[in-house]
Structure formats: C-alpha cells, structure tokens
Amino acid sequence: MAVVYRSWKALTQNAILTRSVSNSLRLYSQKPPAPVVPLVNVEVDDKSGVAVVTLNRPPVNSLNTPLLTELGAAIKNLEDNKSRGMILTSSSDTVFSAGLDILEMYNTPKDQLSAFWTTLQSTWLSLYRSSFPTVAAINGHSPAGGCLLALSCEYRVMVGPKFSIGLNETQLGIVAPPWFVICMRDVIGHRQTELALTTGRLFSAPEALKIGLIDSMVSNKAEAMAEAQKFITQFAKIPPLARKLTKESVRGEGIRYMEDNMIDDLQIFMDLVTQPKIQKGLEMYLATLKKK
Ligand SMILES: CC/C=C\CC/C=C/CC(=O)SCCNC(=O)CCNC(=O)[C@H](O)C(C)(C)COP(=O)(O)OP(=O)(O)OC[C@H]1O[C@@H](n2cnc3c(N)ncnc32)[C@H](O)[C@@H]1OP(=O)(O)O
C-alpha cells in the first residue's frame, strides 16, 4: 500500500512538475498579461480638495463605452464625496479627446450600440449637472465629443494656439443631437452655433477664444491647470447648495431635455447611425484617419 501510495505520489508529483514546467514554458513563450491601466485617473489635492480627472486612453482618448463608464463612475464618486471641484484634462500632450470612438458606431451589433449611447447619455448628464464646479483644461485637439465634454464643464481653458476645437459632426455626415446643440448654444449663442454646426467647423484656439467657445487661452498645460484651480477657488465661499441649485436652474433646458427624451434620443441615434449610408460614411472617414 505504501509503495502504491509512493508511486501514486511520485506519479502525481511528476505530473505536477511536468505540468508546471510546460506551463512555465508556455507562459515564457506568451506575452506577459497587459497591466490593467485605468482609462480615467483621479487625483484629489489634499489641500484644495479639487480633483484632477485625467482621460487616459491613448492614442487619442476616443470615447468608448469603458472610458465613458469609468468617467461616469469617477464623477459619481466625486459627487458622493462632496467634491470641491473637478478639472477634466488629458494624459496626451496633443489630444484632449478625439470625440466618440467611431469604432463603437461602425459595424456594431445593436445591443452594443445601444449600451454605448446610453452610457454616453448618463455620463454626460452627470457631468453637465454635477453639483461641484467643473473646468476643462483642454491640453490638445478637442473635436466633436471632446468638445461636448469641454462644453459641459463650467469653464474652458485651452492650450494654444495650435490645437482645434468644435463640433464637426456634419463634416462626417452625422448630426449633432439636440443636447449637443443646447450645450454649444448656451456657451456661444444661437447665431454662432448655427454657423458652427451647419459647417461642422473646427476652430483654432484663438478663433475659439474670439467667439467665446473657450474662456481663456494659455501656452502650456501647467498654466491651464493653474487657471483651472483659480476658477474653482472663487467658489470656496459660495454656499454649495445655492450654487448647485443655481447651476441646475441655468442648465435646466439641457437637463430636462435629457431626462424627458432619453429613450427617443436613443432611438433617433440608432435609426440614424445604422443607416447603410451613414455606415458607409463612417467607414470612409475611418479610412481617411488611418491613411494620414
Ligand atoms: C442623432 C445622433 C447621431 C449621431 C451623433 C454621433 C455623434 C458623434 C460625435 C463624435 O464625437 S464623432 C467622432 C468625431 N471625431 C473626429 O472627427 C476626430 C477624428 N480624429 C482626428 O481628427 C485626429 O485623430 C486628432 C486631431 C484627434 C488627433 O490627430 P493625431 O494625433 O494625428 O492622431 P491620428 O489621427 O493619427 O489618430 C491616431 C489613431 O486614432 C484613431 N482615431 C482618431 N480619432 C478617432 C475616433 N474618433 N474614433 C476612433 N479612432 C480614432 C486613428 O484612426 C488612428 O488610428 P491608427 O489605427 O491609424 O493608429
């Protein structure tokens, strides 16, 4: 019995050894697993209580469902912790955000497409109506959805002069939904919004400053962060509840639009984006981006 036991033990140990050697060899020949890197970094300054939320999805911070989900969770967390303010910026030196990830809209199964849009809707609403002050420190190009994020903050400081910003949807053959329009109109007015949206114009930072699409232009990210901090500091002595209710009142149209129209807005998006003509347009646009 002891012999049988020893042989069985030897056999199993051998098998374990062989397995572990072959596993090691297999592991050795495989790439090590990629470390899980957050798509959104949040750092809260101990002294000021201000959070710096950094978009971190190289190369261009295009907004896909996981990134939007992380951003939404970060905003909720700041809300739950009664944050003093948030600065939204990017880990890239040249791109704030390239807008919505076109790959999420091109050739995508309907359930994924729907999850993508509803995540965008809810993350946008949490940013737009956040109780704490928000600043976009735009340290790179900021087209389309990138511009929407910036417009949803209360103040925009942009590194210039070489980066661009705007809602360029019509240039892609797609249509900026009403809540994109409200965001832009509330910042630059009806006339400039009509001109900007119908042409799908991207503005250089100096042009954006001229029409009020950004509040300030600086020459580097450090200056942008300092100015963003300064903007938030001015609220230190304003009672937070009065501030929050006032912001909700000023932004009431956009908030109500989203709350009342979430399902219709999703349906319109799905109907539009799944049209073969729009899909072809997105395919061609992706090809031009890749050919660059
Ligand atoms: C009713 C409602 C219906 C519809 C509403 C839908 C609303 C949509 C709003 C949107 O946000 S649509 C997205 C619009 N975005 C753009 O037009 C920006 C496109 N990107 C650029 O112009 C440039 O990439 C940049 C100026 C942001 C940065 O330029 P650069 O630094 O030279 O990078 P590359 O162009 O070389 O790009 C690197 C890499 O990333 C890919 N990429 C860029 N943008 C996107 C994107 N938005 N989605 C997916 N992928 C994108 C690009 O193809 C390159 O890929 P490689 O594989 O070649 O590395």
TrEMBL record:
Reactions accelerated catalytically: (3Z)-decenoyl-CoA = (2E)-decenoyl-CoA; (3Z)-dodecenoyl-CoA = (2E)-dodecenoyl-CoA; (2E)-tetradecenoyl-CoA = (3Z)-tetradecenoyl-CoA; (3Z)-octenoyl-CoA = (2E)-octenoyl-CoA
Pathway: Lipid metabolism; fatty acid beta-oxidation
GO terms, molecular function: delta(3)-delta(2)-enoyl-CoA isomerase activity
Alphabetized UniProt keyword annotations: Acetylation, Fatty acid metabolism, Isomerase, Lipid metabolism, Mitochondrion, Transit peptide
UniProt cross-references to Gene3D superfamilies, sorted A to Z: 2-enoyl-CoA Hydratase, Chain A, domain 1 (3.90.226.10), 6.10.250.170
Any one GO BP annotation for this protein: fatty acid beta-oxidation
Top-rank lineage group of the source organism: Eukaryota
SUPFAM superfamilies: ClpP/crotonase
CDD domains, per the entry: crotonase-like
Protein role: Key enzyme of fatty acid beta-oxidation. Able to isomerize both 3-cis (3Z) and 3-trans (3E) double bonds into the 2-trans (2E) form in a range of enoyl-CoA species, with a preference for (3Z)-enoyl-CoAs over (3E)-enoyl-CoAs. The catalytic efficiency of this enzyme is not affected by the fatty acyl chain length.
Record text on subunit structure and interactions: Homotrimer.
Listed name of the protein: Enoyl-CoA delta isomerase 1, mitochondrial
Taxonomic source organism: Frankliniella occidentalis
Taxonomic lineage from the root: Eukaryota, Metazoa, Ecdysozoa, Arthropoda, Hexapoda
